[in-house]
TrEMBL record:
Pathway(s) of this molecule: Cofactor biosynthesis; thiamine diphosphate biosynthesis; thiamine diphosphate from thiamine phosphate: step 1/1
Domain PurM-like C-terminal: 145-299
Lineage summary: Bacteria, Pseudomonadati, Pseudomonadota, Betaproteobacteria, Burkholderiales
Residues engaged in binding ATP: G116, D117, R141, S208
InterPro entries reported in the protein's UniProt record: PurM-like_C_dom, PurM-like_C_sf, PurM-like_N, PurM-like_N_sf, ThiL-like
Primary role: Catalyzes the ATP-dependent phosphorylation of thiamine-monophosphate (TMP) to form thiamine-pyrophosphate (TPP), the active form of vitamin B1.
Keyword Chloroplast: no
Gene that encodes the chain: thiL
Name of the top EC class for this enzyme: transferase
GO biological process: thiamine biosynthetic process; thiamine diphosphate biosynthetic process
Miscellaneous comment as given in the Swiss-Prot or TrEMBL entry: Reaction mechanism of ThiL seems to utilize a direct, inline transfer of the gamma-phosphate of ATP to TMP rather than a phosphorylated enzyme intermediate.
Protein name: Thiamine-monophosphate kinase
EC number annotated for this UniProt entry: 2.7.4.16
Binding-site residues for Mg(2+) 1, renumbered to this chain: S41, D42, D117
UniProt record similarity statement: Belongs to the thiamine-monophosphate kinase family.
């Protein structure tokens, strides 16, 4: 199968936002009047971001989900994406489920595939996603203010649980492993929540490299500090995953596990009702875990309100 046959068979479909359709040298996109384009790219590399044994359909889902999560963090509505795909062989048995998982999530968010590239090489998936957000309403990392509450959406820590099972350092029952593995392989991008938080959240970021590590990016960009009440974090991991871990390991995975693709965001204390409304309207649970402080630094408090430090860091590809 040739390169262009591959594209025609697995990835070519009707488009409405790209006036040229797939096949020209560039896609032409025009945001609606009064909108700004939000653009993000993520790369997934075999052996670094995913196991060689992963279900291709789930991999297709995750490849787009991690990009949509970036749009969610800035409150943007998905529009379109491009796909750059490197693989050793044009294998229809792999491409069919991969494209099915990818395009099913794209359809769920009305996000059109408008172009990209294919080449022979190690398995590598790079997606660039485009969204739109009303002028001046994007949620940035730099808007957190002293006194703001800190929230986290959904569950965090489960993806790390699944990773440790794959590594052989943790045993988990079949049902619990199914839950954790789904969180690792098919994360849910919080696109609707992100849009609902426009005008409410003061800052946001998606949790990819660990909750505390990603929160530190917000603190640096905003020039503030934070206090985290770790007792409020106890329920962030799913009940199924908690069955296999002691309390300390649960907290470690919640605060520094990574690969969760939930949102951590801040909002003024006066907007708590609005945050809860956004949570209910989008069917996305959120948990308040701390507050923004005027001074620099990140302080953790135990269940008794006493400070402690376990030296949590975030994942870094080049550290």
């Amino acid at each position: 199968m040739g390169e262009f046959d591959l594209i025609d068979r697995f990835f070519k479909r009707p488009v409405t936002r790209n006036v040229l359709g797939i096949g020209d040298d560039c896609a032409l996109l025009a945001p609606a009047p009064g909108m700004q384009l939000a653009v993000s790219s993520d790369m997934l590399v075999e052996g670094r971001h995913f196991l060689s044994t992963v279900d291709p359909e789930k991999l297709g889902h995750k490849a787009l989900a991690v990009n949509l999560s970036d749009l969610a963090a800035c409150g943007a509505k998905p529009l379109a994406f491009t796909l750059a795909l490197s693989m050793q062989h044009a294998d229809p048995q792999w491409l069919e489920p991969f494209s099915r998982g990818l395009l099913a999530l794209a359809d769920a968010h009305a996000c059109e595939l408008v172009g990209g590239d294919t080449t022979r090489g190690p398995l590598n998936i790079c997606i660039t996603v485009f969204g739109e957000v009303p002028q001046g309403q994007a949620i940035l990392r730099s808007g957190a203010k002293a006194g703001d509450d800190i929230y986290v959406s959904g569950n965090v820590g489960d993806a790390r649980v699944a990773l440790e099972v794959f590594r052989g350092t943790l045993s988990l029952g079949e049902a619990a492993f199914h839950v954790a593995r789904a969180r690792m392989e098919t994360p849910t991008p919080r696109v609707e929540l992100g849009q609902s938080l426009r005008g409410i959240a003061s800052a946001a970021i998606d949790v990819s490299d660990g909750l505390l590590g990603d929160l530190r990016h917000v603190l640096r960009a905003s020039g503030v500090g934070a206090t985290i009440e770790t007792a409020s974090c106890a329920g962030l991991m799913s009940a199924a995953s908690r069955t296999a871990l002691d309390a300390q390991r649960q907290l470690d995975y919640v605060l520094a596990g990574g690969d969760d693709y939930e949102l951590v965001f801040t909002a003024p204390a006066s907007r708590r009702d609005a945050v809860m409304r956004a949570s209910r309207d989008t069917g996305t649970p959120v948990t308040r875990i701390g507050r923004i402080e005027s001074g620099a630094g990140l302080q953790l408090l135990d269940a008794q309100g006493q400070p402690f430090d376990r030296g949590y860091t975030s994942f870094d590809h080049f550290a």
